Amino acid sequence: MSFYTEITQAEVNIATKDQGTGIRAQFNFPETLELFKGHFPSRPILPGVAQIEMARFALETFFEKKVSIKKIKKTKFSNLIRPGTPVLLDIQIVSVEPGDNGHDLITTRVTVHSDEKVAGKLNLILVTD
Predict the structure, then answer these.
(1) Is 5 left (phi over 0), alpha (psi -120 to 50) or beta?
(2) Is the pLDDT score of 41 beyond 80?
(3) Residue 34 vs residues 9, 14, 69, 81, 116: alpha-carbon distances, Å
(4) 3-class state of residue 102 by DSSP
(5) Are 120 and 67 contacting, i.e. CB atoms less than 8 angstroms apart?
(6) What pLDDT digit, counting tens, does each position of 42-95 carry?
């Protein structure tokens, strides 16, 4: 099973903010998800790649279309996220520009929060499928 599939099985609440230029997404992951089993077996944490996939899923929900990651400009993971801890993503949509063949390029800045601490920062460029 993929990280993306696991993320779609989480309890998710996605809302817009800042007059449609931002998204706030809250994820609650049960401890039973496969993505916790290998990272790390005795002290599980949410993998960084799952945080990237969470942002992609929130953007797909917001735009109501599939998006792919074109480029990861910058990532920084600064705090561990444990199973059962709510995870909040604040996604700022920096720009949406027309790309090739009718696909839009979406530039974002994402801040990941857990336990009221910043757990990660991501700068992503995505493309609509």
Answers:
(1) alpha
(2) no
(3) 11, 23, 23, 15, 25
(4) helix
(5) no
(6) 889 998 999 999 999 999 999 899 999 999 999 999 999 998 899 999 999 999
Q: In what order do the strands lie in the sheet with 87-98?
A: 11-17, 22-28, 87-98, 104-114, 117-128, 67-77
Report the residue count for the chain.
129
Tokens 């089993």 identify what position?
37
Residue type, 121: K
If one counts every other C-beta atom within 10 angstroms of the C-beta of residue 57, the result is 21
Count other C-beta atoms under 10 Å from residue 126's C-beta. Answer: 24
Phi, psi of 26 (to 5 degrees): -115, 130
Please state, in angstroms and rounded to a whole number, the distance separating the CA atoms of residues 49 and 106: 19
pTM above 0.85, yes or no: yes
Can you tell me whether residue 29 is helix, strand or coil?
Answer: coil
Q: Could you give the CA distance from residue 114 to residue 49 in angstroms, rounded to a whole number? A: 16
φ/ψ of 83, rounded to 5, equals: -60, 145
